[in-house]
Amino acid sequence: xxxxxxxxxxxxxxxxxxxxxxxxxxxxxxxxxxxxxxxxxxxxxxxxxxxxxxxxxxxxxxxxxxxxxxxxxxxxxxxxxxxxxxxxxxxxxxxxxxxxxxxxxxxxxxxxxxxxxxxxxxxxxxxxxxxxxxxxxxxxxxxxxxxxxxxxxxxxxxxxxxxxxxxxxxxxxxxxxxxxxxxxxxxxxxxxxxxxxxxxxxxxxxxxxxxxxxxxxxxxxxxxxxxxxxxxxxxxxxxxxxxxxxxxxxxxxxxxxxxxxxxxxxxxxxxxxxxxxxxxxxxxxxxxxxxxxxxxxxxxxxxxxxxxxxxxxxxxxxxxxxxxxxx
Length: 327
Hints:
Layout: H1 3-9, E1 16-23, E2 35-42, H2 45-57, E3 62-65, E4 71-73, E5 78-84, E6 91-93, E7 97-101, H3 106-115, H4 131-136, E8 140-141, E9 144-145, E10 150-156, E11 162-166, E12 185-192, H5 199-215, E13 223-226, H6 244-250, E14 257-258, E15 261-263, E16 270-272, H7 280-298, E17 307-309, E18 325-326
Parallel strand pairs: 2-5, 3-5, 4-17
Antiparallel strand pairs: 1-2, 3-18, 6-7, 7-12, 8-9, 10-11, 10-12, 13-16, 14-15, 15-16
């Protein structure tokens, strides 16, 4: 890391925790990944803006990170600045809506909605990760997507401007949005609600979905959640209607392991790191093996849902790498 950059960073007016050569395995749910050159945890959106402007002035790349629940970080780490949103958790309630900052976790938003009788987010209860990350990838589960109740999103651009984008203009689709294809920082977002129920009823629904996740093993071992998207398969195909996990299981890969990385016995679309000894290279090799075997056996191409950060290496055969840097 350039000492001039470090010295200059220490002089700018931001309220944030700044760490150097920070191991990313401490900040990802899969518990692997090398060090981030500069790891910044800002206390406010204004500090985020100052960091982005500083990075632009010094030509330093910036990577945005929430709770690290759907990412895979290179064993070589992440160059430049990694900006983590863990302290950006402000949440404001209104009569029929909620504004929330990007670093709030999913349960905080859902609980706030449920306590006021706002219906529509209960199925997301127990889903790991931040609200910003869920909007970035348009998180979905049990037939619903997080964008369903979204009204608008404020983005901090790489030039420090704040731009408000309406949900209908954000190009949401399956596990995708315009935010996953541009370089802006998701700052805060506004959810509005049109359906209402007694909080007690909504709490029961939340517990139902939490138990569904628990019964499927979601909380057993370190993982990055679902590795692959549900593939598009034509009618008449032997795999039509099957999820990625079901196809991987059909390929006989449940329990297959490379060093410390393992395809979970309880959920074939999860790669787990049960003893926290796996390196990213092990996970990458396992992803490639799954893709090749499924393609060879069924002619199905599995596309990655997880996001890749840092220099992963030769990734031509890994589909849809979501690089999230400002250069």
